[in-house]
Amino acid sequence: NTLGGVRRMALGLGLDPALGNIELVHAWKEKLKTFKPVVPEEVTAGPILENVFSGNQIDLNKFPAPKWHERDGGHYIGSGCCVLLRDPERHWVNMGVYRVVVHDEKTLGIFINHIQQGRQILERYWSLGQSCPVAISFGQDPALFLAAAQREPWGVDELSVAGWLRGEPVQVVKGERTSLPIPAHAEIAVEGEIPPMWQESRPEGPFGERTGYYATGTRSEPVVRVARLMHRHQPIVQGDPPLKPVPGMDHFGIPLPAAAVWSALEYAGVPDVRGVWLHGPFATVIAITQRYEGHARQAAAIALGVRTTLALGRFVIVVDEDIDPSNLTDVFWAVTTRCDPATQSEVLTGFPTSDINPRVAPEERAEGRFVSSKMVIDACRPFRWRQEFPPTNVMSAAKKKSIAEKWRAVLQGRRFDE
User: SS3 of 82, please?
Assistant: First the structure.
């Protein structure tokens, strides 16, 4: 995972790697306020054009396409790829990360979640009785992959986001078959079309997803008819297979959607937000300094509807400012000691959810009904008697410092809290 480590990802985003987890999310939130799209630069040459094939020359089987998980239903060349689609109405280009499997030497299979922008673009073409033009890069600048993996608002061109991240335009070549922008420095790329599913579809899956499950099973999904294949000399396929989530982390080292939640809270006028963190795709944790009764519920209500966490996030937990939202042990301690389940939790139903949600019942999945409930957990001290709530027996920072000063010679430079 090119962006799997917190410090590595911080460097890639131009953030100080010495910052703590919540400080990094805050820094990214503030940096997003400076966003200005940097449109891609069209060029006529680039490494991606070092080898170009069409028609019977195309052979997708010559590239390594691993079977990433034990029960995967095929060989997935696209786990760290960027898929480019142009909206037929407004003509902006969406770039997303969607899984891609090799069916044969000229055909790929593609899975795009029904609530993702890429799927909406596909269905717009299909409603017109047309195939959808598509370009896919397999191996590219990490800035492109990062931009493609984010859930930007409808109409935002992720190539321009990648240019902003890089500090310079992304160089692209114009696809001869699709007119789509193709990253000029990609390792491998294809262009072609995705026909309506009533014309052609093939079984796809199962595939081990970021939830830690093979949730989608095997079902008919769209295909990509490849018309043109390009690659640089000695290309490297980028692999980024999703795995069972690591406690306290999202798929990337820093859960960037947490910044979007934090910004949404600020925009809605929620005061004194002290931090936001995501634990895998499932739980959002918000730390606040309580200012009035209902403050925690207000924060949770806003977070429930933020697009970046809507698909899979099923739990929103609000904690006091003394709890580190990125520390799952801290968060669980707050939940189990400060939350009264009868009065400080609530279940809401009828929210849209992802195809890869393992909790969708088989009969609902068969009917194409992807809805889920969500739980709000107020793990803050009860506002009305927060001053009378028993104090914690955690040593204060000031006390730790005084002990370290007193026993400096004994400790010999070692940190007291290690």
Answer: strand
Amino acid, res. 56: N
Which one-letter amino acid corresponds to residue 378? D
Residue in 50, 116, 103, 33 with CA at minimum distance from that of residue 74: 103
Q: For strand 93-96 and strand 132-138, is the pairing parallel, antiparallel, or unpaired? A: unpaired
pLDDT tens for 139-174 read: 999 899 989 988 888 888 999 999 999 999 999 999
Mind listing the pLDDT tens digit for each residue in 244-258?
876 655 667 788 889
3-state helix, strand, coil in the chain (%, to 5): 30, 25, 45
For residue 337, how many other CB atoms are within 10 A of its CB? 12
Alpha-carbon span 245 to 356, nearest angstrom: 14
Let me know: does 285 contact 335? Beta carbons within 8 Å. no
Residues of the chain falling short of pLDDT 50: none
Backbone torsions φ then ψ of 145, nearest 5 degrees = -65, -40
Residue in the block written with tokens 């002290």: 274
**Whether the Cβ atoms of residue 258 and residue 25 lie closer than 8 Å to each other:** yes
Measured distance between the N- and C-terminal CA atoms of the chain, rounded to whole angstroms: 29
Residue with token string 């078959």 = 177
Domains along the sequence of the chain with CATH: 37-231 (2.30.110.10), 257-386 (3.40.1670.10)
Distances (CA, A) of 376 to 195, 223, 320, 329: 42, 39, 15, 18
Q: What angle, rounded to 10 degrees, do the helices at 257-267 and 295-304 form?
A: 120
**How many other β-carbons are positioned within 10 Å of the β-carbon of residue 127?**
10
- Asked if 340 and 383 count as a contact pair (C-beta separation under 8 A), the reply is no
